[in-house]
Structure formats: C-alpha cells, structure tokens
Amino acid sequence: MDTLTELGATPLSPALGAEVTGIDLRHGMSGETAAQILELWRRYLVLVFRDQDLSTEGQRRFASNFGTLRERQRGGTKFAKSKYALWEGDPNIRDDPNLLLVSNVTVDGKPIGSLAEGDMWFHIDSGYAERPYKYTILHAIKLPSEGGNTLFANMYRAYEALPRDLRDRLKGRKALHIHEYKRREKVNLGEDFSNSPHAFHPVFTTHPETGRKSLFVDRLMTARLEGFAPEESAALLDQLFDHAERPENIYAHVWRYGDVVMWDNRCVTHGRTNFPKDQERILRRCTIEGEPPFE
Ligand code: OGA
Ligand code: MN
Fold first, then answer.
1. CB-based pocket (< 6 A), ligand 1
2. Smallest-distance ligand from the CA of 285
3. Rounded CA gap, 86 and 84, in Å?
4. Among 271, 275, 78, 285, which Cα is nearest to 184's?
5. What is the pLDDT of residue 251?
6. How far is the CA of 82 from the centre of ligand 1 (A)?
C-alpha cells in the first residue's frame, strides 16, 4: 500500500498530455491511486512521470495496474530471447516476455531492440491487430543529445474538428490497417499483404470508458478506406492524416532520462522525430492488451 495523498497534474500542451507529480512509481500503489492515475489518463490521454527509476520488474508491476501485459511477438513467433540478452545493461529483460526495448543500439552488428533509428510516421500501436493495444508505457533509459522526440496527436479532437460533410461521408465506414515495418512509408497495396498482419476497423471509434468518439486512422498503417475507389480513398486518407497532425492537435514530448510516458492508443496516435544515427537511444516498453474497436 502506498501512503500517497495527492497527485498533481500539469497540462503539457493545449491539445493533450499532462505531467503527473507526487508519486514514485517504484512503490506498489493502492487501488485508489491507480484509479486516480486512470482518471488523469482519461482526461489528458498522455501522462508523463519525470525522474523515475523503474527496473524491468518495477515497470511490469506498475503497468499491471492497468490491465494484462501483452507478450512480445514477431510474426506469430516469440522474440528470440537472445536479442535482449545482447544488451548487458538489463540482464532481467532477457527472460521477461512482456517488456521490449525500443532502441537503435547494436552489439556486434546486431540490434538489441526494435523500431531502431530515425523518424517514424504517426501510428496506432498494433492498429493492424484485431485487438490493438490499449496502452503503451515507455521508460527512458538512454537518450540522444537531440531529437527523437515522440509526437502525440489527440484523435478525439481530430474527430470533433472534422468538417461535417466528411464526418457524414465516413460514418459507418471501415479502414484497412496493415502492419508496416518500414516506419516511414506506406504499405504498397499493389503487393500481396496477406502475410502481413492486417485488420479492418471503424474509421470512427467510441472509447469504451469515456464514450467519446475518435478518428481511428494513421498515416503509417491505414492503407485503404473500404467502399471507396482507390484514388478517392487515398485522397480522403491524406486529408484525414493532415487534419489529425495539425500542430494545434499535437504534444511533442522532449525526453529526459528517467521519464515514464504512457498513452492511450484508442484516442492518441504517435510518431517520432529524427535523431543522430551515431547516438544511442534506449526506451523500455510494455503494452496492455486491448479489445476490438467499435464505432
Ligand atoms: C513505440 C513508439 C516512439 C519512440 O514504442 O511504439 O512508437 O519515440 N515509440 O520511440
Ligand atoms: Mn509506436
């Protein structure tokens, strides 16, 4: 049980995001504290906790307050343990199936983590799955001197600010989401994607807890709108992406060592800015299982 009495929350941008103070995440927390965090999460969509020092086990324990941790996989097979064993900075992660490293670091030419270097287009984590992750929780372990900022877009606001005619046209429609490993280019619909994970989800989804509607598409992995000609689908999607990624709808997180940043994939998309290739960046990540999205 924790002895916490008061959590503070300071908004980080007009669009979304808040910094939460008054808690050391290493300590176990009461159900009441977890409920308070959830309430802040529903209000601000992205929560930032500064100066934290979570071990692998500590991160898993903290994350478990918010649901079932997702097991890391690739193409249906479990990640080789050896990938994580390469990094000596965290021997515990090797045997932990629920945590992974987001990193560009290599040891003997082999990457120790996923999502390596460079910028990344806006995306929903595992939007291509039948049950996309509910939450993603990252902890900063090593950072470059500049760049590698994570950008968050408020997809409730994107939905609410859509022109009426677009909302009417897309109501009840679905979009195809396809897994794209390249991070800054779209899936080529001309190629056979049957072996890439993919799923259809409503263009507009309702958040099961807040009841608010979101725009549920992203530039990286939303490939096509069902029921439109290819050119029309492409033009509409571009319009939706540009609309969602307008600066006033974004919070740009500039990472600090020790940060824990967590977001709700049901109402937030995220991307990443470029950073120097010759500098190491390591974030430890876990995700929480989700449910099929519905309109
Ligand atoms: C992720 C992700 C962004 C980043 O972990 O899903 O997109 O800034 N990370 O590395
Ligand atoms: Mn991501």
1. 102, 115, 120, 125, 136, 138, 150, 270, 272, 283, 285
2. 1
3. 5
4. 271
5. 98
6. 22
How do residues 28-85 score in pLDDT, each as one tens digit? 899 999 999 999 999 999 999 999 999 989 999 999 999 999 887 644 445 555 466 5
Residue 126 pLDDT exceeds 80: yes
Q: Are the CB atoms for 267 and 214 separated by under 8 Å?
A: yes
126 CA → ligand 2 middle, Å? 8
For residues 17 and 66, what is the distance between their CA atoms, to the nearest angstrom?
Answer: 18
Single-letter amino acid, residue 37: I
For the whole prediction, is pTM greater than 0.85? Answer: yes
pLDDT at 20 exceeding the cut of 70: yes
Which of 72, 101, 102 has most ligand 1 atoms within 8 Å of its beta carbon, as the pocket-test mutant?
A: 102
Domains of the chain: 1-295 (3.60.130.10)
Which residue from 218, 272, 280, 286 has its CB within 8 A of the most atoms of ligand 1, so it is best to mutate?
272
Q: What is the rounded CA–CA span in Å between residue 264 and residue 64?
A: 15
Q: What is the mean pLDDT of the chain?
A: 90
